[in-house]
Fold these 3 entries.
Entry 1:
Amino acid sequence: MTTISLTTDFGLRNGFVGVMKGVIYKIAPEAKIVDISHLIAPQDIREGAFALWRAYSFFPEGAVHVYVVDPGVGTMRRPLAARIGAHFFVGPDNGLLTPILEDAGRENQEIEFVHLENPKFHLPKVSRTFHGRDIFVPAAAHLANGVALNEMGTPFSDPVRIQLTRPQKTSTGWIAHLTMIDTFGNLTTDLPFSALQGRTDILLRLRGAQVNGIVESYGHKRPGDLVAVVDSEDYIEIAVVNGSAAEKLGAKVGDEVEVILPPR
């Protein structure tokens, strides 16, 4: 039994996700479908990229991950299928796989891409506006059934990538950037805790606010306090205890965070 995950910006109101699941079960009735998220902000490729990046490695090897955050649907952008390490991915070639590809490059994982142009693995009629239904989940279901990646189309090696921010070293510490705002209003940065070499006595400045030190978890301060923690992926996060740091600070993805290491 192969697991197929779904990550989209479709929401749950209009039945689009249910339609895609129906297509999968028609082709691969033994597949197991898991929803990562259907509440990605509309057309937000970057948010979708980090949602999938956070989740995919916790799935079993051989899982097929379908992502449909696709502002370019119906244009010349390629529909793709890929094998990255031990996982398969199916979706538009729009850069959403960038964080996963960067990790794969650092870890020397094997990577294969194909342009999904073999109509044998599409639905009989392909619309211009719902490639999730007509191209992506059929391809995923065929992969789950054991069809080889190279049967589905033409190999290529130049996938689209989005520009990701990276923390910049300064004379006093780092300039980090906000990469994600979660449903609680917590602010994830691109600075890994490992870069601080174990130091928690840091000072963070963001949008005129200041946070002193890193605490172990949200419950170590009082409700309403602004805190810094290390998130589940080892990145520095700014939060408000029982509140929203995004609302409190008016923060947005891309904002700079000054991280200062006091002299010892």
Entry 2:
Amino acid sequence: MKPARFDYTRPADLAAATAALADAGAKPIAGGQSLGPMLNLRLARPSLLVDVVRLPDLRGVEEGPGGVLFGAAITHAEFEDGAVPDPTPGFLARIAHGIAYRAVRNRGTIGGSLAHADPAADWPTTLAALGAVVHLAGPEGRRELPVEAFILGAFETALGPGEIITGVFVPRCAAGARFGYRKSCRKLGEFAEAMCAVLSDPACGVHRLVVGATEARQLVVTEAAALIADPAGVEDLLRRAGLAGDPATFRLRRAVIGDAIAALARETTPESLTS
């Protein structure tokens, strides 16, 4: 199939982009790795595509003592290749390496992944575990939201009319921070059927666990020290969150969460991120 008819514009600056996006039928496009297939299948039928991938405000990187603010149009490949600073002990590059295929990583962007809000995508789960904050700009000005507050559900975000993601702030981890990440896919490059990210950073007092690939929004546990110390509580966590209805999916999630917690105790390689 081919996309339904739409108009196209490439604004010169952020103000022009937010003005164009105020149109009810407008939709931003950056890498297009998620939106492109949806257009071809006519699952998305915008009347106007607003190309934001080259906006200078979306391509910057600001590094500070507390973390790094990445422009929304930074690609997965730039994280993977170390072309941008990493405020974590290499966690971002490892996650980026496991996203789909290199062709996708060359064009797909971190802001686009968050805006699409696919529960099975790597960045929403990872960034929620890292305590990242989404920076937004729109007709009413600028605002910031934690990732878990920005994503409201499956393919649903807090973006308002005319708003756009300008960047993602990732807090700096201590050198001794540990990160466990596991996802289960039928084959390499496919979307995950179950996933979990765990951050243990005692020096910063942070212990977070996030379950992704759910039917709605990610399950975020901000005080996960007890669960990390005793993973036996995983079953109760999933049941209380309503994620134990299907026995097969329940067992898969339980196993993936257990593997992510276990990964905290040992070094992981990019190749081991996908099971």
Entry 3:
Amino acid sequence: MVLNGHQIIKEEIEKDTDIVLVAVPSYAVSNVLVSHKSEILDKKIIICSKGFDKSGELFSKVLEKEFPNNQIYFLYGPTLAGELQNGVFSVMVLAGGNGKEELKKAIELPDLRIQLSDDIIGVQVGSALKNTVGIFVGLVEGAGLGENTQGFVYSQGLQEIQKIGVYMGAKPETFLGFTCAGDLFVRSRSRMLGVEIGKGRPFEEVAKEMIYPKEGIASLLNILKMDGNPDINLNFFKLIHSVVFEDMSVKEAVNKLAEMI
């Protein structure tokens, strides 16, 4: 697949490609890149996959070890693929070091604007955990608890993401931008997963019907690996796990969340 003249990793990489965009599921990013290592050692790599590496680490930490001589960037935003293909006006954030100004010129289209950022950690954390928070928002919608409650969960979730991101070294303002707050607004697959579970359907049943439904779940399980760290409160994310995997009702989860404020 090619986007605006640039190769997106799927199966093969053309020899004359100098920019590689990676848009595979998060759990496959490192494996796919390593399997193509000899072909991309001199190319700019742009990660579009949202989530954490299969190890639970940020992509940036894992890939800088495997590709120390490559320039690696991250491109995220509130962008549904179908709308991008149909020319709907969209904005994305390109995060990275030197060279991103030139990449912006290469990627940007009249209906796709690119904002630049130096906050590599923030855009990764925000884009990964917004999928998980989106599940909770979807749970509330599916359970029919109303938009007021959705707004409460949305706002609280955004604050929780920001706290974790800042702890990991991100800038707090990044989470109010396109890659987190903006992307959380979009009715993503993760939110739709939550909607169906909120209606009372089991996760396993819903997951079989959806394409890439587990990005938010994968990020949930990865962030819960930090449980026990005295500097991070994961109660918000534990409630999502309790509803999806432990039969807690959405109403009970919302009530418990309300007790935390």
